[in-house]
Amino acid sequence: MATFLYRLGRGSYRLRWLVLAVWILVVAGVGAAAATLQQETNPEFVLPGTESQEAFDLLEDRFPEMAADGGSAQIVIQSENGEPLTSEANTAAIDALAAVMADSPQIASVTSPLATGPNGEPIGMLSAEDQTIGVMQVAYAEPAMELDEDTVAYLEAAVADAEDQGVRVEVGGDVLQAMPETSATELIGIGVALVVLIITFGALLAAGLPIITAVLGVMLTTAGILAATSFMNVSESTGTLASMIGLAVGIDYALFILSRYRSELAKDGRVEDRRARADAMGRAVGTAGSAVFFAGLTVIVALLGLSVVNIPFLTEMAVAAAVTVLIAVVIAVTLLPAFAGFAGKRIFTGRQRRRIAAGVHGTKPNGGKRWAGFVTRHPILVALIGILGLGALAYPATDLELGLPDAGSSGEETTQRQAYDLISEGFGPGFNGQLMIVGDLDDGVDAMAAAQDVTAELNDIDGIALVGQAVPNQAGDTLLVTVIPEAAPADEATNQLVHDIRGVLADDTDADWAVTGATALNIDISDNLNDALLPYMLIVVGLAALILLLVFRSILVPLTATLGFMLSVFAALGALVAVFQWGWGAELFNVDQPGPIMSMMPILMIGLVFGLAMDYQIFLVTRVREAYVHGADPKAAIVDGYGHSSRVVVAAALIMISVFAAFIFSAESLIASMGFALAAAVVFDAFVVRMAIIPAVMALIGRGAWWIPKWLDRILPNVDVEGEKLQQHLAKDAPEDERELVGASK
Question: What residues make up the domain containing 122?
Answer without folding.
Answer: 72-173
